[in-house]
Amino acid sequence: MKGRTIIQIVLGLVIVALAVVLYNSIQKPMRFDNEYTKRRDACAEKLKAIRTLEDAYKLTYGTYCGSFDTLFGRLMNEDSMRVVSKVINHSVIPADVDINEVPELEAVKKGYISRVEVFVNPIAKLREDGKLPIIDANGHKRQLTDEEILNLRYVPYPRGEKNEFELQSGMLDKSGLQVPVFECKVPLEVLLGDMDHQLVVNKIASVKEVVGRYAGWKVGDMNQAITDGNFE
Q1: Cis-peptide into 156, omega within 30 deg
Q2: From CA 116, how far away is CA 18, in angstroms rounded?
Q3: Taking burial as the number of CB atoms within 10 A of a residue's CB, which of 140, 164, 167, 184 is the most buried?
């Protein structure tokens, strides 16, 4: 009887162990996919912000930038973006005229409003226009700080590592016309570098099965005049 009890206990432990192994074999890929999605989304937010800065750089300087140091340094420290500002000429507006009710084109023709070109700081302008948004830990929407902008160059995962996104820029010949292009990207083997090796290999292989698909996340393209992200 004692021997039978021991056997039953052993069998029970084996069953529990097998159940745990089975559970983990099911949950492991699910946890991987959840983490993969989280990292993809974090990358996408940074890449979209970098694209916004590249668009501002092109608007300001006529081309894209292939260096994070130059991109951040010039946009943050130079008053170089040309914008059209409106100046209300109060001295010429009749006392019985409400300037807010006068169509802008009419106001310009009558001299109530003047349009002047001014140079502003690109980053300050982007913040003013709400184009550098981030959701903070409390769920509040705000604009990126200078420090957060400087940290855009770093891939968000693995935590504690300082891997940089790959950034390039250049000119593309389109029927004899030189078109500015840029590309910012990170391969999956970098983004997922601290995760299960075999699952990472499987993920990269599955992505590469899609013809022409880059095994990673990026915005822009050095071979096409586009600024789309492959996560969009």
Answers
A1: no
A2: 76
A3: 184
Which pLDDT score is estimated for 60?
92
With a cut of 50, list the residues of the chain below it in pLDDT: none
Residues 194, 198, 201, 205: is their CA dihedral positive or negative? negative
Residue where the block lists tokens 């913040």:
127
- Picking from 61, 1, 91, 107, the residue whose alpha carbon sits closest to that of residue 70 is 61
- Residues 6 or more apart whose CB falls under 8 angstroms from that of 160 comprise none
Question: How do beta strands 133-135 and 216-220 pair?
Answer: unpaired
For the beta carbon of residue 172, count every other beta carbon within 10 angstroms: 14
Burial of 75 (0-12, 13-18, 19+ CB in 10 A): buried
Whole-angstrom distance, CA of residue 182 vs CA of residue 202 = 29
**Lookup: tokens for 115:** 């349009």
CB 47 within 8 Å of CB 218: yes
What pLDDT shows up at residue 191?
96
The model's pTM is 0.79
pLDDT tens digits along 150-199? 999 999 999 989 999 999 999 999 888 999 999 999 999 999 999 999 99
pLDDT for residue 63: 96
Angle between helices 197-208 and 2-61 (to 10 degrees): 50
